[in-house]
Amino acid sequence: MVLRRPDETMVEWSAWSHRKGHGLIDQAAPISTEPNSWWAPRRRGWWIAILFIVGSSLFAIGSFPPTASLLGSAAGAVFFVGSIFFTSAAYLQYYEASNEGDSVTGDDRTSRLLGLRPQSLGWWASVVQLVGTLFFNLSTFTAMGDLSALQEEALVWAPDALGSIAFLVASGLALVEVCAKLWCWKPDSREWRIAGINMAGSIAFGISAVGAHVLLPTGDLNNATVANSFTFIGAVMFLIGAALLIPAASSASGNRG
Length: 257
What we know:
single chain, 257 residues, mainly alpha, three-stranded antiparallel sheet, 8 helices, elongated
């Protein structure tokens, strides 16, 4: 939204920037060309980015053929640890969305561990994504055990598929929040680039889940190459999207650049 202050100056407000604590953007102010800091450990957004980067990196390592071959059976543990980092980052996003406040300036932010903001698309996206990471926790944890084909389908593939669906829904909600409709083209917008890249990662994870479907009674995967390849592609997309969050988290101004 573009808002007019009492002094007649025009400012820009967006849900994404508001949630990240950037405040209002003065439209008359020049866009800063100074590089943003990549070191901002005092900001929650920086930790969200770092946790997603670590989680994505572990998923990429576990699914990249050369490293997966070296890891062998230990690859399952790498995926599980990566899923814990995903869940930690997703909870911080949920916390951020739950406490952003209703004031345009963000002066009424709260500090609740659990919050309900059903009027916010960003809040819904964070909730759905958090649920998706919990499904991945279950899937990757149970995958480390010695299971029958039926157990693999129910305890590994099913939560993996549900987690992938949750990621797709969350990414779609994030894009709708940025675009104010189902789709738009805003390559100059940082939040659009992040949402678009995360959507690409979610689509890749969805394709991976199709390839990872367990065939009964043999227990073989539908297509192991597709499962591993698209897990790797999705992880790389999430890593890039998370990396783009770092300068956004450390910036003191809005969502431009």
